[in-house]
Specification:
Elements lengths: L1 E4 L12 E3 L2 H8 L5 E3 L2 H32 L3 E6 L6 E6 L1 H10 L9 E2 L3 E3 L1 E10 L2 E11 L2
Parallel strand pairs: 4-9
Antiparallel strand pairs: 1-2, 1-3, 5-7, 6-8, 8-9
Length: 147
């Protein structure tokens, strides 16, 4: 019997897979537990359409992130911080501070997507923003003394 898996079944299939399984396994185990549905032509067509829509959605997301990456490329983010002796900061500038600065510039990004070491001195430093799989943007973080 051909079935469409509705959830992952360890060692058998993953969600969305269409597989041929033994009739008894499908009728007595998979279908009653809601792990699979019988694969009719309508359900298979619906699954194909859903997968196509998902691919299109992912491609639009990827294009959007590529455009955002091109906008962010070599963008300078200025952060003002209190300094002590020898231009050493009180505390540190973190990826959360950079995310807040980017938010004021109109870019809403999760701080976890910004890869950088904590900054403890004035000057220009670089950070990498991970936007999507394989799409990264390098930004410049300029730390200036707070007046």
């Amino acid at each position: 019997m051909r079935v469409i898996f509705q959830s992952d079944v360890k060692g058998v299939a993953q969600k969305g897979d269409v597989k041929e399984v033994k009739d008894g396994y499908a009728r007595n185990y998979l279908i009653p537990r809601g792990l699979a549905l019988e694969a009719t032509s309508g359900r298979e067509r619906e699954l194909t359409e859903r997968n196509q829509r998902q691919k299109e959605r992912e491609e639009r997301q990827r294009q959007h992130m590529q455009e955002l990456g091109n906008e962010l490329k070599d963008k300078v983010v200025i952060i003002r911080a209190k300094v002590g002796e020898r231009d050493r900061l009180f505390g540190a500038v973190t990826n959360g501070d950079v995310a807040e600065a980017l938010k004021t510039m109109g870019y809403t990004l999760d701080r976890k997507k910004i890869a950088m070491d904590p900054i403890k001195h004035l000057g220009e430093h670089s950070a990498v923003v991970h936007l999507y799989s394989g799409i990264n943007a390098r930004i410049v973080v300029r730390v200036e003394a707070q007046s």
